[in-house]
């Protein structure tokens, strides 16, 4: 059974339409959690790239960088 069904303490649902909706909602929650992790990883990657560019720009300004 799904997590929501377990938390609601529902062992059997006679209304299969409701059960299917709950299971579908659980699947969407899993997808959103994965998508959020990917998004957070992308943001960390962008921040690292910004820091790298700032360091390189600072080196150029101070005359320490390679051109």
Describe this structure in words.
The chain has 67 residues and is mainly alpha-helical. The chain has one domain. The chain is 78% helix and 0% strand.
* DSSP helical segment count: 2
Query: Average pLDDT, to the nearest integer?
Result: 83
Structural class: mainly alpha
Instruction: List low-confidence stretches.
Output: none
Order of helices and strands: HH
Strand content: under 5%
Concise structural overview:
The protein is mainly alpha-helical and 67 residues long. 78% of the residues lie in helices and 0% in strands.
SSE layout:
Blueprint: H1 3-7, H2 16-62
Q: Key features?
A:
67 residues; mainly alpha; 2 helices
